[in-house]
Amino acid sequence: MKRILRNLFLAAAPLAVAAFSGAASAQTLDGAKLVESGKLTYGVAASFAPFEYMLDGKLTGFDIDFINGLAEKLKVETSAMNMEFKGLIPALQGGRIDIINSAMYINPTRSEQVDFVPYLKIGNNVMVQAGNPKGITGRDDSICGKTIAVTLGGISESQARADNDRCKAAGLGEVKVLTLPTAQDSALSLSQGRADANYESTPGAVMALEKMQGVFEIAGEPFEMNTQIGIATPKGATELQAALQAAIKAMVEDGSYKAMIAKWKLPASVSLFD
């Protein structure tokens, strides 16, 4: 099971959709400071299917196809640095990578540390064991007193800690936040009963139900359905940001952006540019 699993708020950034329409028309990284000339070095935490994960020893997922498409437009090669999610922003701030390409949710705290070029919007689901043995009805009072498995440093950790604060304030019992290195670890802990629920992206939940039939189910309705995710760049890296915006614009116009959404079976609602 572990092997299978292994293969498995909205904060408007300064470079949000409105800025996208006015992005520079030139698709070039000229003038942008790169870790290695001619290469776009990106950080990724390959544990968040279907966006980025390992399959047969290779990086795969929507974000991997997406960054390769951007690189083609920008006429550069890509170089991936796979690491734990918590290490991505420090690596960017330390100049080890040019960008973060890892389905990073945009929120105010992160936007103080990095700039974002948004490219998708998604929601989240509460995932529980099949049969829902703890009777969880969604992201509501039913999760008070329960154990929620989360990715350390990920948006799910922030969500679970906010729920803990809410539950304690209401006198309904604390939420135990079980922090783990990867989303796959969170799913594994849920499947083994060490956690009562985890919070999964809406596309990730669909993939988990498809790949692990009879193991998980969704409890309640999706939440935070307009959460944007984006490519993170260093603060003030305007040339790099403009080039990425231009490359995304080109992918939207030639249909490759929409084709990638369809390939990875993401709902059409994830698009920011229709």
UniProtKB/TrEMBL annotation:
Alphabetized SUPFAM superfamilies for the sequence: Periplasmic binding protein-like II
Record-stated family: Belongs to the bacterial solute-binding protein 3 family.
Record's GO cellular component terms: cell envelope
CDD domains attached to this UniProt entry: PBP2_MidA_like
Main localisation: other
Entry-linked InterPro entries: SBP_3_CS, Solute-binding_3/MltF_N
Keywords of this entry: Signal
Residues spanning the signal sequence: 1-26
Database matches in Pfam families: SBP_bac_3
Subcellular location: Cell envelope
Domain Solute-binding protein family 3/N-terminal: 39-268
Name of this protein: ABC transporter substrate binding protein (Amino acid)
Annotated TM spans: none
Source superkingdom: Bacteria
